[in-house]
């Protein structure tokens, strides 16, 4: 006689989770090759570094010494190295399992039910998720010409505003706010409102007016800047990010951070990556060259208009349905991020790839122009 199956009681989950859907990763490169009979598939959808991590960081991953021990010492070593690089104190640095974890720590530490998180309407979606999970209220501020409208942010601040998220450069638009705009916002909020600058792509920025947030954390104790090793440092699979802020703010975050939250190998690799300025500069130079080339090629077509970007990706307005375009490109071996999930069905986002990846993308995009006309 078989055992009777019972269903999981869905009603037992928190009601706010009804507003969420689990993250479903796309098909692997191997699955796409098999499905469409392709020999080559490139992924230009997740803003990863096509040149990979520092060779010095990779070498460090082969060192398995002490991996049976919890990574307390390596955590402290990375804290110290980051603080030395930025001219802060180790106590002003928190390290996370990717900067995503620190976003969720900020909500856990500061959002009470009904309190507000302020963010752009088109930006990194984890901010909304983090606030809603804590039964907070989300208020969206429309972008102005693809950029954060700081005056509107300031106008929307109330006594109920607890967190303000500024993705800088913004994902998916690649736009930035300036140091002057950052100070304008920071000087307009009370000390009880935490201002979060998410600077995941800051190493790619070439605009000299980009905020120097490490110089502002002492002046504004309610400021935290988030950075990551997942983008230009090429360590996305190891999940290491960090935040810099006042010691008191960081101390609060440590109260909700799980112990030993970042793995030993990731911490070691991140230390080596920080030291390898040669690989960092090479990655940035290649990105600048590839971005200029892609912008030129896209502008030469009447169907595509790239948005100026300070990151390692381009948001592109298209005369085609972006979802259909992404489907056509997928059949030809190119994975991009179409804009429906951002609320921009006539846009897509493309990562700046290697020279050969960029050329492959433009070749296949030209084919799609013919197919979709």
UniProtKB/TrEMBL annotation:
Chemical reaction(s) catalysed: L-histidinol phosphate + 2-oxoglutarate = 3-(imidazol-4-yl)-2-oxopropyl phosphate + L-glutamate
- Quote the protein name from its UniProt record: Histidinol-phosphate aminotransferase
Q: Which cofactor does it need?
A: pyridoxal 5'-phosphate
Q: How does it assemble?
A: Homodimer.
Give all N6-(pyridoxal phosphate)lysine modified positions.
231
SUPFAM superfamilies attached to this UniProt entry:
PLP-dependent transferases
Residues forming the Aminotransferase class I/classII large domain are 40-365
EC number(s)?
A: 2.6.1.9
Protein source organism: Natranaerobius thermophilus (strain ATCC BAA-1301 / DSM 18059 / JW/NM-WN-LF)
What's the top EC group for this one? transferase
* An individual GO BP term: L-histidine biosynthetic process
Q: Which family does it belong to?
A: Belongs to the class-II pyridoxal-phosphate-dependent aminotransferase family. Histidinol-phosphate aminotransferase subfamily.
Q: Could you tell me which NCBIfam families the record lists for this protein?
A: hisC
UniProt pathway annotation = Amino-acid biosynthesis; L-histidine biosynthesis; L-histidine from 5-phospho-alpha-D-ribose 1-diphosphate: step 7/9
**What are the protein's GO molecular function terms?**
histidinol-phosphate transaminase activity; pyridoxal phosphate binding
Q: What are the entry keywords?
A: Amino-acid biosynthesis, Aminotransferase, Histidine biosynthesis, Pyridoxal phosphate, Transferase
What is the gene name? hisC
């Amino acid at each position: 006689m078989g055992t009777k199956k019972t269903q999981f009681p869905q009603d037992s989950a928190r009601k706010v989770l009804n507003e969420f859907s689990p993250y479903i990763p796309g098909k692997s490169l191997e699955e796409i090759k098999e499905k469409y009979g392709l020999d080559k598939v490139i992924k230009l959808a997740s803003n990863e570094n096509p040149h990979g991590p520092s060779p010095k960081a990779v070498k460090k991953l082969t060192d398995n010494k002490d991996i049976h021990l919890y990574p307390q010492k390596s955590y402290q070593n990375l804290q110290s190295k980051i603080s030395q690089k930025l001219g802060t104190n180790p106590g002003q640095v928190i390290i996370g399992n990717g900067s995503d974890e620190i976003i969720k720590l900020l909500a856990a530490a500061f959002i009470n039910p009904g309190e507000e998180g302020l963010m752009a309407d088109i930006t990194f979606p984890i901010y909304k998720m983090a606030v809603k999970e804590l039964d907070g209220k989300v208020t969206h501020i429309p972008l102005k010409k693809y950029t954060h409208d700081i005056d509107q942010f300031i106008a929307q601040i109330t006594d109920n505003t607890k967190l303000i998220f500024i993705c800088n450069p913004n994902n998916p638009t690649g736009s930035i706010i300036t140091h002057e705009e950052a100070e304008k916002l920071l000087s307009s909020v009370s000390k009880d409102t935490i201002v979060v600058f998410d600077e995941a792509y800051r190493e790619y920025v070439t605009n000299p007016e980009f905020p120097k947030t490490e110089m502002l954390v002492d002046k504004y104790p309610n400021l935290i800047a988030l950075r990551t090793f997942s983008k230009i440092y090429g360590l996305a699979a190891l999940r290491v990010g960090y935040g810099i802020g006042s010691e008191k703010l960081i101390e609060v975050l440590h109260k909700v951070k799980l112990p030993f939250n970042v793995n030993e190998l990731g911490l070691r690799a991140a230390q080596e990556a920080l030291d390898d300025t040669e690989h960092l500069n090479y990655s940035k130079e290649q990105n600048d060259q590839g971005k200029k080339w892609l912008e030129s090629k896209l502008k030469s077509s009447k169907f595509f208009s790239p948005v100026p970007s300070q990151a390692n990706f381009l948001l592109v307005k298209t005369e085609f349905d972006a979802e259909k375009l992404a489907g056509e490109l997928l059949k030809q071996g190119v994975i991009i991020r179409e804009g429906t999930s951002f609320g921009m069905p006539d846009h897509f986002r493309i990562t700046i790839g290697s020279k050969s990846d960029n050329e492959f993308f433009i070749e296949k995009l030209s084919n799609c122009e013919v197919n979709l006309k």
